[in-house]
Amino acid sequence: MDRTNVLSEINDNEREGRKKILVVDDEKGFTAMLSLNLETAGQYEVRVENNPQHALEVALKFRPDIILLDIIMPNAEGPDIAFEFKNHPRLRDIPIVFLTATVTQEEVEAHGGKIGGHSFVAKPSNLNVLLDSIERNTAGVF
Predict the structure, then answer these.
(1) How does pLDDT run across 110-130, given as a tens digit for each residue?
(2) What is the pLDDT of residue 15?
(3) β-strand partners of 23
(4) Alpha-carbon distance 42 to 27, whole Å?
(5) Where residue 13 falls among pLDDT bands split at 50, 70, 90?
(6) Taking the alpha carbons of 111, 117, 123, 125 in that order, is the dihedral positive or negative?
């Protein structure tokens, strides 16, 4: 086995057992910090897509366990992208957590973390609140 194959196998083994998170948000600074924080937690493999127009294609290739989806983005609305995910046979069962700056954490908590039947996390968010939402929404994935 050559060096490239060995490194690939090591990387695959390191990812085994880690939940795969797709973050779709147009704010590059936010997604860079979020990705770093989630990967530092150690149990997640994170893929970021800053262009909502590519979200469906990336989700099909990456096959995430959960999708963190911004609500308001240029050229696309989070609910419209969620509709595309839920209507695709390979993506329909993947939980989606909406990230939004349009509601406060207090409003989200007052509704039990769900608004309109969908999981929400207010931006900016405490990392522990986000981790709790990820774990709650992926219970039973592994």
Answers:
(1) 767 776 667 888 887 788 888
(2) 54
(3) 48, 68
(4) 23
(5) very low
(6) positive
- Residue written as token pair 């709790």: 132
DSSP code, position 63: -
| Spatial contact of 20 and 64, defined as CB atoms under 8 Å apart | yes
Residue 42 is predicted with a pLDDT of 83
Q: How many residues does the chain have?
A: 142
- Which domains does the chain possess? 21-137 (3.40.50.2300)
Tokens of 37: 């924080």
CA-atom Rg of the chain in angstroms:
15
pTM, full prediction: 0.82
Q: Which amino acid is at 100?
A: T
CA atoms within 13 A on the CB side of 127: 11
